[in-house]
Specification:
Elements: H1 11-15, E1 22-27, H2 32-44, H3 51-62, E2 65-70, E3 77-80, E4 92-94
Antiparallel strand pairs: 1-2, 2-3, 3-4
Helix pairs in contact: 2-3
The structure holds zinc ion.
Zinc ion (ZN) binds at residues 3, 5, 7, 71, 73-74, 76.
């Protein structure tokens, strides 16, 4: 995934312990209660007894999570809405304004 400045957010960067950029999880307020319910299912199935049930719970919860990635080169914000699947290139880009409020 490329920023407009050319910086590339590669999947390998997400796997690194020390990321080269900041990334934030985003959950739509309208889906927050459903997300919490799914997260509780993740916790409840995380005991290792049923790995398939746990994987399904993680998948259901993560469907409610998007992200905001901060470009380390130009400070643009790349917004991936919840429900955006891996490999999709749809994103919204926001540019930092000068000055403070
Ligand atoms: Zn950039």
């Amino acid at each position: 995934m490329l920023c407009k400045c050319g910086f590339c957010f590669t999947p390998e960067m997400l796997a690194k312990t020390k990321r080269e950029f900041d990334s934030f999880a985003v959950i739509n307020d309208k889906a927050y209660q459903r997300f919490l319910k799914r997260e509780l299912e993740v916790v409840a199935t995380g005991n290792g007894q049923d790995p398939d049930a746990h994987a399904h719970a993680v998948a259901r919860a993560s469907a409610h999570v998007g992200s905001i990635r901060v470009c380390p080169k130009c400070s643009r914000l790349l917004f991936l809405r919840p429900g955006t699947r891996a490999g999709e290139f749809y994103r919204e880009v926001y540019q930092k304004e000068e000055g403070t409020y």
